[in-house]
Structures are given as structure tokens and as C-alpha cells.
Amino acid sequence: MWVRKCLLLLAASVTTVVADDDLSKYALTDTGSTNDGNTFPGVARPLGVVKLGPDLYTGVDAYSGYKPTGNFMGFTMLHQSGTGGAPKYGVVSQMPVVGVVKNPLSDAMNDARAAPDVTEVGYYKASLGSGTVLELGATNKGGMYKYTFPKTDEPRNILVDVSHVLSSYRGQQLEQRFLGGNITVRREGDDPDRFYYTGFGTYDNGWNRAGPWTVYFCGRFDSPSTYKTFLGADFTSDKLVEFSDESTYESDSARLGALFAFKENTVISRVGVSFISADQACSNVDSEIPEGTSLDDVRDETKEAWNSQVFRKVTTKETDVAKLNQLYSALYFMHLLPTNKTGENPLWDSDEPYYDDIFTFWDIYRSWTPLFHILQPTHYEELLRSMIDTWRHDGWVSDARSSFHNGAVQGGSNGDNVFADAFNKGVKGRVNWEDAFASMVKNAEVVPENNDDPRDPTGSTKEGRSALPDWLDLGYITPRFGRSLNDFSIASVALGLGKVPQFLKYYKRSLNWRRHWSRDMKALGFRGFLGPRDESGFIAQDPLSCGGCYWRDYYYQGLPWEYSFNAHHDMDTIIDLMGGPERFVDRLEMTFTPNIVPGNGQFGHTIFNPGNQPSFATPYLYNYVNRQELSVKRSRFIAKSYYRPTPDGLPGNSDAGAMESWLLWSMIGLYPVTGQPIFLIGSPWFSDLTIDLGGGKKLVITAEGADEDTYYVQSLRVNGRDWVKSWLSWGDIFEDGGTLEFVLGDEPTRWTTGRLPPAPASTSAEHARQLLRSW
Questions:
Q1: Is the distance from CB of 94 to CB of 78 less than 8 angstroms?
Q2: N or C: which end of the chain has fewer CB within 10 A?
Q3: Superkingdom of this entry's organism (predicted)?
Q4: How are beta strands 3-5 and 678-681 bridged, if at all?
């Protein structure tokens, strides 16, 4: 494996003191970087703008820039982690080159690895075939490159390529393009031999098919140099022009950059970015990484940022290193995205926060946003406010947003679910809920303009719900369209705001999912599944097949069998349609039976797919019929079978931390039902775990007898009281903090004999009103 993890104690020479409780040493920053996990193993601060790391070329899409094989083609300031669809960013590039450079767009863009990369929190090291060693560090809006060139008579160069982007090879009009930019080289103060560069690049596309966007940069070198600027029409251009004084090169299409040459073996470069101006990029790097800052300083400040802002929010006295690796690695990767770009939004003036690089609410609303709410209540409120402010100025709260553009709607307007979850858990602060509700209503009533995405030409993939014409006219969706969801989320917020007519309207519409229930669909001895239909009736469909499970297929990222469990606001109806509690359990058990679906070999040929979100809640649904012991059995097996603290340790694409958040909920011993303030009870991994909820509040979890083989719940006390329900409410343990005292054993026990989890849409509108008001 080309990436190995350094877990070393701090050297005595470190100048910045790191707290004794340095939990960052447990976070393995290469976890999920291979096997299509697509995580970013470079350097970053929590939710930081800069994610500084390598870009590798192998002829296939490198979504985070990283690949375990292939050659280096640049080290860039902006990346994403755990995304798919097509690569995004890979811009503001530097690349070390040893030797004479005749053509900067060919000679300088391909260098092999000479040794395994080293990655840890706050630090990345690459050893290149040229003999150069490159070490990286990052702040929120700045990055540090430390080059150690080989001792040679050959020229030592650093290539700055304004036109560099991560490439995509899959088509579908997702390939990023350099649309133009400029670079200016200036003298550093009165020193005739030191230079710095500023400029900008404009780009488009990526996974969200973004329109043009611009990043500004400011790069400083702490060593004397000479330089040349270049302008090339294509990759084969050999035009190289030398200047002796300040110079600017600008392009509206041709690739451009500069080549700096150094006599010293060790060179430090400090680079800042901004989306406002080059002056602001210089201000960012000068304030965050002033001249004289060492790489050790940057590294250790980054470690402390992760410790104080993330890791120390979840603590335990346990010493099992493997479990600590999984805990803190998962916390790390769920805090790389979204990006907090507050103060860097070029589109409108606002006092509101601005968060970008949301990939995507479809991926993260089920488990990531509920956990982010608990761990980062301030950032969570800011994210909600940013969503609302985007609606005010851009017209829509989209399912996804990156580089200041909406795009990549999957399933529907899943931001509605995020709003409902926050509202029903009492989030107030500075959130304008009237505006939030207005944005939800727009999603529910206005058909978005078709953006002609070749992935799905039937309607908009940029924002909104493209299938609204069918949903509004027919009460179901025909294959003419792709996306429409989430009316119950709107209903719950409407009621809480006192908008009873709107509550009744959207509550009624939320039941229309039942019109897709086909009693004639059969598989494996079970009858009745969610099926495709048109005006003529139901369309023949195998419950164990979804075709390609892609944008234009009847089912997206899941089998009909999986989707048939997914109306979580109406679970009592699902249980009845499946034949009652016993048949419901039988069907769940079949979901996890090996060797059922031959084409799903990666996951033991089971119907259950841990790598896609429609299956996320399914292991916990046994709680709806008080078979909590089976939820423990299945969720623990999944977590232990498909997750490891290794580069190949995810069951699929991280999806910007969605996978990691699912694992964290499993480790905590709970699972959220998004849009409702309830949590299904699982089984904790640790004998003790404390979650800092902010404001002096804590959730303290203990588990007597917890071990690898003793994980079935025997009994539970909540805030000192005996507990027999299979679920908890937000008010029980999170609103003011609380305690969970588990007793675990090696044999399953049916200890949940209390009231079943609520199903607010399964009886009547009046019952739903009473239930929602009780929340």
C-alpha cells in the first residue's frame, strides 16, 4: 500500500506545545483512501477551505486527487473528500521538477513515487522519483509546501500551473475546464532575488456541473529564485518567455503559469487562496502562515485544531487502539466537508454564514446531519442559515452545492429533511424558520427549469423536484420523471409554525407513496413492494433488480426490496403491507441472508447494501416491532464486516463522511430517524463514552460487560430510570444531556417490551397533529 500511517510521539524539538490529550494520533488519515472510498489523505483543518494534497494520474477519475498508484502531476490547494460523480477542484497547483524544463506542460507534469507517502493529522509527505521530498501543512485558507531537493547540479524548479484541474474520463459533460486566468510575478519587497506570485483561475463543471467560478491565489517563496512565465495553447506548446522584472500573463483559454528556479536545496512556499481577490488571498496567507512559521508549527496547530474542535468532543477511557482508530478516524472524515467559506462568498453581500461543497443532502441527511447537529451545534446552525440565505439570493435550497453553484440533485429536495430534523429538535438561535419554510414550499410547488443534464434529461438535476408535474397531477410519479420527495418534512414544519392548512395539505400528499405499493410484485416468497407505474397501471419489475440503479433507472442507488422499507414516517403502514410484525421480521431477515443476490458479491450476495444510503436505517428497523436484539445483531455485523481503520476500510464511497457517520452512530449505540426527534437504540462499542453537547451539557454512556463478543443489550437505564422502550427522544438525552447505562451480554434478550417507536403518518391527520405537537 502506497500510503502508510505515522503514529509517532511528538519529537522533543517541536516548538508548539500540543495538549497531553492528543487524540489526533488515533485518526488514521488514509482510511478509506482506496477501494473506491475516495477519501482525501492530505492536510486540512476542520471544515477548512484549503485541502492541500497530491493529484495522481492513472487514467481514471481521482475524485479526491489521490490514488494509491500512478504518477504525481501536481500538489494542489483545493480538494474534496469522499465525493463521486466526477472530480472537483485540484486547483492552485505547485509541482517540483529537477532538471532543464523545455516544455512545462509535459516535462514537469509526471513524476513517480520513490517511497510510500506518509500521512497523519496535519502532515503529508511525498517522495518523488526525482529525489525531491515534499512535505505539506495547511491552515484554513493557506497551505505550506516544504521542498527538499536532491543534491545535484541539475536545476531545481517549482512549476506553478494556473490551468491545472483534476480531470474526468467518464464523459457526461462533467469534465472540469480551465476557462482563463492570469498570473503576476512580483518582487518580494526590496529583495531583487525573491519573488511572489498572485493571480486567479476560472473553471467550471465537476460533479455538480457548475457554471464558471473563480479562485484567487497568492504564493510566496522564502528563498531567492529566478523565474519564467509560460503561455501555451495546448499540452504540446513549447513557448517559454523569460522576464527580468514584474510581469503579468493572462489567458482566456491557453494554459499558463510560471516556473521558479532555486539554488537552495530546501525551499519553503506559503500559499493563500480566496474567492474574493488576490489581495485577500495574500492577507489570508500572511495572517495564517506569516514568514518564519515552521512546518512543525503549522502541523501542531492543525493537530490542536482537530483536538479542540472535534476529537475532544467524544472521549472514552478505553484503550483498545483499533477501536480508538475507528472512532477518531471516522470523526476526522466527517469534518472535512462541507467547507465553511464564510467571508469568501463572491456572489452576494450578507451578514449570514456561507457553507459550500455540500455533497449531497441525499447522502448526508440520514446520519451525518443529525450527528453534526450534536457534535457541532454552532456550525450546524450556521449551515442552516447558509441554506436559507442561498435560497434568498439564488432562489433554491438545492440537494447539493459546490463552487457557489447548485447541482447534482439526487432523489429530490433533501434539504427539506435537514430543515425538518432541525426544527423538530428545537433548533432556534438565529434561524429564520419562516424563510426556511418558504424555501421548502417552493421545492414542493415550483417545477425547476430543466438544465439538460445528460445523466437525466427528464428534468432539473440542479435544484428542486423535477417530477412535480406527475406528483401534483397524478399523486404518483411515472417513468417520465426522476425526482420528488419529502412532503412529510414540510408538513411537520408547517404544523410547528401554526400553519394548519399547509400541514393538512402536505400531510395528505406525504401518504401518496402508498400509491406506488404493488401487491403483485413478488420475490423470495414475499409479496408487495414499491413498484414503478404509469397511467395504465403498474409496470412489471423484479424486486431484486434496479437495472443500473442510476439516474434514469426506475430506482436510484437501491433495489425495490430496499426502497420498500424507506417510508420511515409511515412505518406502521409498511409493517401492515408486509403482512404484520412477524412477516416484517422475516423480510428483514431475508434482507441480510447471504447468497441471495448473485450480482452483489462485494457484500456477501445479500440484498442489504452498506455502500448506499437507502439501506442505512434498515438494520435498525427491527426496533419498530420490539425486536431490538436483531437490530444489534445486524448492525454490529455490518459495522464489523465492512468497516476497518485501513485504506480499504469503507464499504464504498465515503460520500463526504456519510459512511463514517453511520459507523459513529453504531459505535455510540443509537440511530437517528431523520425528520423525527427519535433515536432507535442499538448497542455501544465502548464501556464508557462521553459526548460533549456544548453549553456544559454532556451525554454519558456506560456499557457494563462491553466486549467484542458481549454486545447484546440485557437492560438499560436512562437518566437513572429503568427503560423498556426500543427508542429514545431528543428530549430524553440530547436537549439537556443525560445518561445511558447499558448492561451487555453474549446472548440476545427481548428486553424491549414498551411502547413502539412512533409512526406519525400511519393513523390519521389528527393523531399526527397530536404527536407532532408533543415533540
A1: no
A2: N
A3: Eukaryota
A4: unpaired
Q: What is the pLDDT of residue 13?
A: 31
Tens of pLDDT, residue by residue over 682-736, are: 999 999 999 999 999 999 999 999 999 999 999 999 999 999 999 999 999 999 9
Task: For 340-361, write each residue's pLDDT tens digit.
Answer: 999 999 999 999 999 999 999 9
Is residue 628 predicted with pLDDT exceeding 90? yes
The stretch 508-526 carries a mean pLDDT of: 97
- pLDDT at residue 238, rounded to an integer: 37
Strand partners, 266: 148
CA separation for the pair 146, 134 (Å, rounded) = 6
Q: How far apart are CA 437 and CA 419, in angstroms?
A: 8
Specify the pLDDT at position 246.
Answer: 62
Average pLDDT over residues 573-580: 98
Phi, psi at residue 414, to the nearest 5°? -75, -10
List the domain boundaries for the chain. Answer: 31-309
- Residue 248 host element (H or E): strand 247-251
Query: Which residues have C-beta within 8 Å of that of residue 341, sequence separation ≥ 6?
Result: 49, 275, 354, 355, 356
Q: Which phi and psi (to 5°) does residue 256 adopt?
A: -150, 160
Q: Which amino acid is at 118?
A: V
pLDDT reported for residue 20: 53
- Tell whether the torsion through CA atoms of 365, 366, 368 and 373 is positive or negative: positive
The reported pLDDT for the residue numbered 600 is 55
Contact 742, 702 (CB under 8 A): yes
Torsion of CA 578, 584, 587, 593, to 10 degrees: 170
C-alpha cell at 120: 497523519
Here the cell at position 588 is 428483514
Distance CA 214, CA 202 (A): 4
Residue 759's nearest CA partner among 680, 682, 671 is 680
Residues in the chain: 775
DSSP, res 570: G
Query: CA end-to-end span of the chain, whole Å?
Result: 50
Distances (CA, A) of 488 to 139, 512, 555: 41, 10, 21
Q: Which helix (H) or strand (E) holds 745?
A: strand 738-745
Pairing of strands 247-251, 255-262: unpaired
The two beta strands, 688-694 and 697-704, are antiparallel
How far apart, in whole angstroms, are the C-alpha atoms of residue 13 and residue 607? Answer: 54
Q: Which amino acid is at 188?
A: E
Helix (H) or strand (E) holding 256: strand 255-262
Distance CA 436, CA 391 (A): 8
H-helix or E-strand spanning residue 770: helix 765-774
8 A C-beta contact, residue 127 and residue 115: yes
Q: What is the pLDDT of residues 387-430, one digit of tens each?
A: 999 999 999 999 999 999 999 999 899 999 999 999 999 999 99
Alpha-carbon distances, residue 179 vs 79, 209, 233, 621 (angstroms): 19, 14, 12, 49
Cis amide prior to 224 (ω within 30 degrees): no
Q: Round to whole Å and give the CA distance between 393 and 407.
A: 16
| CB under 8 A, 24+ apart: contacts of 194-198 | 194/221, 194/223, 194/224, 194/225, 195/221, 195/225, 195/227, 195/260, 196/220, 196/221, 197/160, 197/258, 198/278, 198/281, 198/282
Q: Three-class SS of residue 67?
A: coil
Residue 740 CA to residue 425 CA, distance in Å, equals: 19
Fold classified for 31-309: Beta-galactosidase; Chain A, domain 5 (2.70.98)
Alpha-carbon gap, residue 642 to 456, rounded angstroms: 31
Between CA 229 and CA 237, with CA 233 as vertex, the angle to 5 degrees is 70
SS3 sequence of 324-381: HHHHHHHHHHCCCCCEECCCCCCCCCCCCCCEECECCHHHHCCCHHHHHHHHCHHHHH
Q: How confident is residue 763, by pLDDT bands cut at 50, 70 and 90?
A: confident
